[in-house]
UniProtKB/TrEMBL annotation:
Record domain HTH arsR-type: where: 1-97
SUPFAM superfamilies on file: Winged helix' DNA-binding domain
Protein name: ArsR family transcriptional regulator
InterPro entries per UniProt: ArsR-like_HTH, HTH_ArsR_DNA-bd_dom, HTH_MetalResp_TranReg, WH-like_DNA-bd_sf, WH_DNA-bd_sf
PROSITE patterns, per the entry: HTH_ARSR_2
Swiss-Prot/TrEMBL keywords: DNA-binding, Transcription, Transcription regulation
Domain of life: Bacteria
Pfam families reported for this sequence: HTH_5 (PF01022)
GO MF annotation list: DNA binding; DNA-binding transcription factor activity
């Protein structure tokens, strides 16, 4: 677990919001055609953010590099899910400060 990368990822409010959305994908992305068990399609996240696709991709890459999300490629689409184990380990580490 790269604590510095996680802090960097969480420093941005949009990245925190994306993580919040991914916590309850059925609530925030009800129109996704493929099952949410794959995760949330990057295109769905792009649409919800309301900013350029390249900027959203950079935010998702930062979350992925920090280990806060996992990715799964299905055909031409990339799906994102929270990595709950990493998030919990990070939360636990905060108690040790």
């Amino acid at each position: 677990m790269d604590i510095d990368a996680i802090h960097k990822a969480l420093a941005n409010p949009l990245r925190r919001e994306i993580l919040e959305w991914l916590k309850e994908p059925e609530r925030h992305f009800p129109s996704q055609e493929l099952p949410l068990s794959h995760g949330v399609c990057a295109g769905q996240i792009d649409g919800r953010c309301g900013i350029s696709q390249s900027t959203v991709s950079a935010h998702l890459a930062t979350l992925h590099k920090a280990g806060l999300v996992t990715t799964k490629r299905v055909g031409q689409w990339v799906f994102f899910k929270r990595d709950e184990a990493v998030i919990q380990a990070f939360r636990d580490s905060l108690g040790n400060l």
